[in-house]
Each structure stands twice: as structure tokens, then as C-alpha cells.
Design goal:
- By secondary structure, the chain is an alpha/beta fold.
- The chain is 41% helix and 17% strand.
- It is built from nine helices and 13 strands.
- A six-stranded parallel sheet has the order 2-1-3-4-5-10, with helices on both faces. The chain has a three-stranded mixed sheet with strand order 11-8-13.
- Helix 1 crosses helix 6, helix 2 packs parallel to helix 3 and helix 3 runs parallel beside helix 4.
- The two termini are 31 Å apart.
- The relative contact order is 0.16.
Length: 286
């Protein structure tokens, strides 16, 4: 078993590499030096390197930036996954791709199932949904998997928790949206789930993974502040609430982003731990 990890220097790719190393699984990682939107470059890479599995962590994740750079985002989030899946199929390799809760419109009130209708409300969601279709349409004969996740945070790279820590230490007051709800996900936990999918090979298709429980952005910020104070980190800012209407952004955000993870649990026995526990692990890893 040898795993090709794209986006290998990003927050999730770094976590996947760490999981593979801990399990003694051989891996090769690529990042910006290999443009996955260039099919010729990807095919050349595949002729030079052997791999039995591919985990695509590469993505254009700037949600607001996608609004003005949708063609560029589409190239990375849709054409790139298609190319990865195509060379994986040519090599007979299992392929795993990471997608997002933003493929849904956010108008639900029950956890989203993998079979629920999609309807992205921003450019990021549209490009990621296109990537899902392109990836599965290329379909590795031995298994292709899309794993959707939500509200990702981790030790490497920009994320909401890291942003809150910086703001708590530098501002007298921080106000956070309290009418958007989702399931935070710790990058190493998602990385373990992605590797589990690659190793255990459930029925091909779409799965969801996120840490257990749901919370608003404000609730996640409050928990972050509590953890910071408990560890003696600077967090003197007063924390307040905002509505989405009071905090307009270039890209609309879904109000409801809660994913059901029951399908993955039933398929390979993955039981996501509570997000609050995962948040504590994040602080321990800092």
C-alpha cells in the first residue's frame, strides 16, 4: 500500500501524512509543485510514481475569494479532482476526495444525509459540487469515495479556531455569528477517517464525516475562549453575538450545516468523537 496525498502541505494534507506515518503506511505527497489542474502533468507524475491509493486534499478553500475567482476555484475544485480520479483509475488505485457541507443550501433542520438534494448558495459550494460529480464520474474501478466534511480546524493552516485565538489576544471585543449551525471537525480526526475509508473500502460513493454534536460559530468561539483561558493563553476580549444579517460577507453562508455521519459508522465502524473533545486535543497539540 502506497498513498498519494495531494495538497500534502495543507492543514488536512499534513494531518493525513501524519496518520499514514503513524500507521506505518508508505506515502508520497505533492502540493503546489504539481498542478493537479494540468492533466498532462498529473499523468506524467503517475508514470513516474507508483501508488495504490490517492487521497485528494487539494482545494481552493477561500470561500469569499471564490466569489470573484470562480473560474480559478472551479479549476482546482472540479478539474483537479477529475484528473486525480482519472489517473487513479488508469493505475487501478483507490481514490478518495474531500468535499464540503457547502454543497447544501442550509435550509434544513435535520442532519443532512448523503442522499439529500444539494443546492449550493455560493461559488465555493458550486465548485466543490462540480468536483464531486467529476470525481465520481471518472470512477476508479476498484473504488472511488467522496467524503464531505464541515467547519474544519487544525494545527496547520488558517481556520476559525486559530482566527479566534488571534482576535481574543489582540482586540477588546469580538462578535461572532450565532445563527449558523454546524459540526466542527478536527483535521487529524478527519484524516483518520479518510485513511480508514481507503483501507477498509466500503461501498463506493459519498460519505460524511464531522465530529459529533452541533454548535453555532458563536458557541465554537466561546468554547475556544474557555480552552484558551484554562491554558493561560491571552483571551481578554469580550465575546458578543451577531446575526448573519449584521455580518455581511461576499459569499452567502448556509444557516444549517449539520451532516449526518451514520452511513460511515454503519459502513466501517467509524464513531466520531464529540467536537468539544476534539477541540481540547487541538489545544493540547499547540
Amino acid at each position: 500500500m502506497r498513498v498519494w496525498v495531494t495538497g500534502g502541505n495543507g492543514m488536512l494534507g499534513t494531518a493525513v501524512r501524519g496518520v499514514l506515518a503513524a500507521r506505518g503506511i508508505d506515502a508520497i505527497a505533492t502540493d503546489r509543485e504539481l498542478d493537479i489542474t494540468d492533466l498532462g502533468a498529473v499523468e506524467l507524475f503517475a508514470t513516474r510514481e507508483s501508488f495504490t491509493h490517492a487521497i485528494n486534499c487539494a482545494a481552493f478553500t477561500g470561500v469569499d475569494l471564490c466569489e470573484t475567482k470562480e473560474p480559478e476555484a472551479h479549476a482546482v475544485n472540479a478539474i483537479g479532482p477529475r484528473n486525480v480520479a482519472r489517473v487513479a483509475r488508469a493505475r487501478g488505485a483507490i481514490a478518495v476526495h474531500v468535499s464540503t457541507d457547502y454543497v447544501f443550501d442550509g435550509h434544513g433542520h435535520l442532519p443532512y444525509l448523503e442522499t439529500d438534494p444539494t443546492g449550493p448558495i455560493n461559488a465555493y459550494g458550486r465548485t466543490k459540487l462540480a468536483g464531486e460529480h467529476a470525481f465520481l464520474d471518472e470512477g476508479s474501478d476498484v473504488g472511488s469515495y467522496v467524503v464531505r466534511t464541515s467547519w474544519l480546524f487544525g494545527k496547520s493552516g488558517a481556520n476559525f479556531v486559530a482566527t479566534m485565538l488571534r482576535l481574543f489576544a489582540t482586540r477588546p471585543e469580538v462578535r461572532v455569528v450565532d445563527d449558523q449551525t454546524g459540526r466542527p471537525t478536527y483535521a487529524p480526526d478527519l484524516a483518520n477517517a479518510l485513511v480508514d475509508v481507503a483501507v477498509h473500502k466500503p461501498a463506493p460513493g459519498i460519505y460524511h464525516f464531522a465530529n459529533a454534536g452541533q454548535v453555532t460559530w458563536y458557541g465554537l468561539a466561546a468554547a475556544t475562549r474557555t480552552e484558551a483561558i484554562a491554558r493561560g493563553l491571552p483571551a481578554d476580549a469580550v465575546l458578543g453575538k451577531l446575526t448573519t444579517a449584521e455580518y455581511p460577507t461576499p459569499a452567502r453562508r448556509p444557516a444549517w450545516s449539520v451532516l449526518s455521519t451514520d452511513k460511515l459508522t454503519a459502513a466501517i465502524g467509524v464513531h466520531p468523537r464529540p467536537w468539544r473533545e476534539a477541540l481540547a486535543s487541538y489545544f493540547e497539540a499547540l
